[in-house]
Design goal:
By secondary structure, this protein is of the alpha+beta class. About 25% of the residues lie in helices and about 40% in strands.
């Protein structure tokens, strides 16, 4: 009987762990890269801090609110490196503090704070075109 209980416990744990995994796109982190990369421009202003820079090559296509966090997504007309350089320099130029930034071949992150908010601009080569980069911006109260 002890062995049956042990196997039952292992089975329950395995099922619980299987439910914890999943693809990021299924976790509700926005509408998905494909929609953000091809969607129509937002009709309303994105929910970003008042002095958040306007990036010349970015088109915002969707936004959502998850608790205190505002999420804005869209695409950058250009590659990840160009997007990273423009985002970082524009944020610094607008008076935001860069907390961390990293540039890799297919993605980039620039974490920032300012105007009582903090967040991250994540850039990924997910649009299916080397000249269009997926943009995912989070911002929340500090």
């Amino acid at each position: 009987m002890s062995q049956l209980r042990w196997l039952s416990l292992v089975g329950v744990i395995a099922l619980a762990l299987a439910g914890c995994g999943g693809d990021k796109k299924e976790e509700g982190d926005g509408g998905g890269e494909a929609e953000a990369c091809t969607g129509s421009p937002l009709s309303a202003a994105p929910k970003l801090p008042a002095t958040f820079p306007k990036f010349d090559s970015v088109t915002y296509t969707q936004q959502s609110t998850q608790g205190p966090t505002e999420i804005v997504e869209g695409y950058y007309e250009g590659d990840v490196e160009g997007a990273h350089d423009e985002v970082k320099s524009s944020l610094e130029g607008a008076g935001f503090t860069i907390l961390f930034d990293e540039l890799e071949e297919d993605d980039s992150e620039v974490s920032w704070k300012g105007q009582g908010r903090s967040g991250q601009v994540a850039l990924r080569m997910e649009c299916g075109d080397s000249d269009r980069t997926f943009v995912h911006i989070t911002n929340r109260p500090e």
